[in-house]
């Protein structure tokens, strides 16, 4: 079975939660849907602490191109896990989940709700369900796998972990390499490790959740407006400074939306107008993927437009609708 088949979409177990804990609110949804405004509204109303759940907004190098909350919003409520990671670091979901748990505990210790906001579904999934206890990968195996052409690595995966190969897009180089290095290093498929995930918050805290939704045309309109504001607000200089650092090409920060396209324009390979068009197309594709994630992996979460969320009571407690993860 795949990891998706072993993890229920609704994951809070109120009968096991600590009744003394303040709420945990999860605000998910596609980029440019208005999630940050909802989080700020709830934080100001409840004294809550906003915790970032966006994979790109963690980086100190990128504030404009990732639409990190501006200074005036940061001054209106406490914000955590924004802009604190150096772009050189190989940041990942497991590290974020551990840091997010620590921030939730700190908020609760001070008597405040924890309000997590971001569109990185994998981060929220890891926080809720825990981390697969995969042993350290043999460095030699990792190096050999990462050096393989993508077609060769997918063919090898089809031989060594057929279920993973069937599940993964051959062009998804990162996930194909991860599945292959795990099965080669541990002798056990990644899906088996994922079924043993541990450390999630779902069984110990009352979790409320919402997926912020808007019509596709409105999401596209907002994305275009945001891009115009980014370009006028220093996105080119920000990406130029990042590229000037000559980071290793596999650093996750370089995969943030807009970085590759603006880097091409800065290098003179395409025009800035072409870069903007490419960024907008990539953003729309990302919105579609996020919407699909919400429809599948957050299928039982309530879906609401941003203006419909006026209090924490508008975010239902997420009740179990399936067996507990193994």
Describe this structure in words.
The protein has 326 residues and is α/β, with parallel strands linked by helices. It folds into two domains: 3-132 and 197-214 and 289-314, P-loop containing nucleotide triphosphate hydrolases (Rossmann fold), CATH 3.40.50; 139-194, Histone, subunit A (Orthogonal Bundle). Helices cover 46% and strands 9% of the residues. The chain contains 14 helices and eight strands. The protein has helices at residues 3-6, 35-46, 71-74, 93-109, 121-129, 139-146, 150-160, 162-167, 173-186, 190-194, 216-232, 235-244, 259-266, 272-296, and strands at 24-28, 49-52, 79-80, 114-117, 130-131, 198-199, 207-212, 302-304. It has a six-stranded parallel β-sheet. It has a two-stranded antiparallel ribbon with strand order 5-6. Helix 3 (71-74) links the parallel strand 2 (49-52) and strand 3 (79-80). The longest helix has 25 residues, at 272-296. The model is unreliable at 1-16 and 321-326 (pLDDT under 50).
List the helices and strands and how they pair.
Blueprint: H1 3-6, E1 24-28, H2 35-46, E2 49-52, H3 71-74, E3 79-80, H4 93-109, E4 114-117, H5 121-129, E5 130-131, H6 139-146, H7 150-160, H8 162-167, H9 173-186, H10 190-194, E6 198-199, E7 207-212, H11 216-232, H12 235-244, H13 259-266, H14 272-296, E8 302-304
Parallel strand pairs: 1-4, 1-7, 2-3, 2-4, 7-8
Antiparallel strand pairs: 5-6
Helix pairs in contact: 4-5, 6-9, 7-9, 11-14, 12-13, 13-14
